[in-house]
Amino acid sequence: MLPEVTDNMNQVSSDLQQYGLALVSDQLSNKQLTLARDATYRAAQEDITLARGADRFELDYGEGNVRVWNILNRHKVFQQMVQLPVVLTLLKEVIGWPALLSNISANIAEPGSDGGAWHQDQLYIPKPWPPRPQGMNFAWALDEFTSDNGATEVIPGSHLANDLDPSSFDDVAEPLIAPAGTLIVFESRLMHRTGCNRSNDSRAGLFGFYTRPIYRTQENWFLSLDKEVTESASEELLVLLGYKTRGFGLVYGKSPL
Ligand SMILES: O=C(O)CCC(=O)C(=O)O
C-alpha cells in the first residue's frame, strides 16, 4: 500500500506518519521543473567531459546510476528548491528547526541500470536509534517515475519496523510511480533504493537529505559551494548550510554569518 499523490498538507503529514513517506503535487512550476531537469542532465554531461566527481565505487549506487554532485552550484533553481515553503514547513514539523542540509545530489538511472542497494538514510547513526527520525529526504521526480524506468522503490511502513528482514524486501517493495515534478518526502528510517531501469529512457531524480543540526553533513558546504551561492543565500538557506548557527560551527565563539 502506498499513499496517493496529494497537495493536501494534512494528508501529507498523516501519510508521513503512517507510511514513512508522502507524495506531494503542485510544488514546482513547469519552468522550475524544466530548468532543474535540463541543468541536471547538463551537469552530468559536464562531469563526464571533465572526468569529475566521486569515485563511483566509493558509494554503492548500482551499475549504470550516475550521481551529480555540487548541485547547488549548478543552477539557481536548486537553491530555490531546497528551501521551498513546503520543505521548510515539513522539516520544522518532523525534525524541528534549525536543521542542516546534509547533501543534495541528482541520480540518473540510465537504461539498463541496476537497482541501488537497499538502505535507510540515517544508517550511519549508531543503534539503538532515537524514537524519532533524525533526518528527512525531499526527493523530486525530474522525469516521470514509471513502473519500469527505475522509480525509487520503498518498503512502506519500514520506518516503524524493528525487525526488517532483507530477504522479504523484493516481495513487499513498491515502486514510487509519479508524474515528473512530484515531491517525494520520506523520513530517514524508511527503507528504499533506486529501482532497476528496464526502459529505454533515463530517469533523473533529485535527492536532498536534511538532518537535525547535531550531525555532520555529508557534503562539505564550506569547501564545495561557490561564493555566489552563499552571498545570495536567504537566512534560512544559511542556516541549512551551517553558516548561520548556534552552539556548533562557531568562529571566535560566534556564528560565522
Ligand atoms: O535514485 C533513487 O531512486 C534513490 C536514491 C537514494 O536512495 C538516495 O539518494 O538515498
Describe this structure in words.
The protein is α+β, with helices and mostly antiparallel strands and 257 residues long. The chain has one domain: q2cbj1_9rhob like domain (Jelly Rolls), CATH 2.60.120. Helix content is 26%, strand content 18%. It contains eight helices and ten strands. The protein has helices at residues 9-19, 30-49, 76-81, 85-94, 169-172, 221-224, 227-231, 235-240, and strands at residues 5-6, 21-24, 65-68, 100-109, 135-141, 153-154, 174-175, 183-187, 192-193, 203-211. The strands form two sheets. A seven-stranded mixed sheet has the order 1-2-8-5-10-4-3. The protein has a three-stranded antiparallel sheet with strand order 7-6-9, with no helix packed on it. Helix 1 (9-19) links the parallel strand 1 (5-6) and strand 2 (21-24). It is globular and about 55 Å long. The model has no long low-confidence stretch (mean pLDDT 95). The structure holds 2-oxoglutaric acid.
Quick gist of this model?
With 257 residues, the protein is an alpha+beta fold. 26% of the residues lie in helices and 18% in strands. It contains eight helices and ten strands.
From the alpha carbons, calculate the radius of gyration and give it in angstroms. 18 Å
Strand order of the largest sheet: 1-2-8-5-10-4-3
Contiguous helical run count: 8
Going by helix content, strand content and strand pairing, the class is alpha+beta
What binds here, in terms of ligands, is: 2-oxoglutaric acid
- CATH domain class: Mainly Beta
Oligomer category: single chain
Point out poorly predicted stretches.
none
Shape: globular
Number of domains: 1
| Average pLDDT reading | 95
CATH-level-4 superfamily name: q2cbj1_9rhob like domain
Strand content: 15-25%
The assigned CATH architecture is Sandwich
How do the helices and strands follow one another from N- to C-terminus?
EHEHEHHEEEHEEEEHHH
The termini sit apart by 45 Å
Tally of strands: 10
- Proportion of residues in helical segments: 25-40%
Biggest sheet overview: 7 strands, mixed
Quote the CATH topology.
Jelly Rolls
